[in-house]
Amino acid sequence: MPRDSPRCGLFLILDGRVRFTFTDRDNRRHRLITLTPGMSFGETSMLADMRYANDVYAETTVRVAVLPPARFDELTDAAPQLKLALLERLAAAAYAQADAAVRAVAAHGGV
Questions:
Q1: CA atoms of 48 and 90, how far apart (whole Å)
Q2: How far is CA 104 from the centre of its chain?
Q3: For residue 23, what pLDDT is reported?
Q4: What is the CA radius of gyration of the chain?
Q5: Phi, psi for 50 (deg, rounded to 5)
Q6: Beta-carbon count within 10 A of 18 CB
Q7: Which residues contact 78 (CB under 8 A, 6 or more apart)?
Q8: Nearest-CA neighbor of 94 among 25, 51, 33?
Q9: How remote is the C-alpha of 102 from its chain's centroid?
Q10: pLDDT confidence band for 111 (50 / 70 / 90)
């Protein structure tokens, strides 16, 4: 999924590895984080209705479960308790992934 893609779902990785990368000022690509089974991505774009800030690549053959944006939005009325529980889990996961990404950027000299 290229950088600047619109929100397209919440992805739960069932099998395989997914890599997030960024390109620095010198046009070199750097790994931010690699996600493995049980981890998710798409949280930030789903919650904030914003485009992806980084490139996302499959490092291996990947199998994911996807919650499409329309279904995610429907949970507000259809299952508010489920959506609240999902949001709490997504916030915790997004924080952990953001922390790992910040450490990766710092390791590259704060690119």
A1: 12
A2: 16
A3: 84
A4: 15
A5: -125, 165
A6: 22
A7: none
A8: 33
A9: 14
A10: low
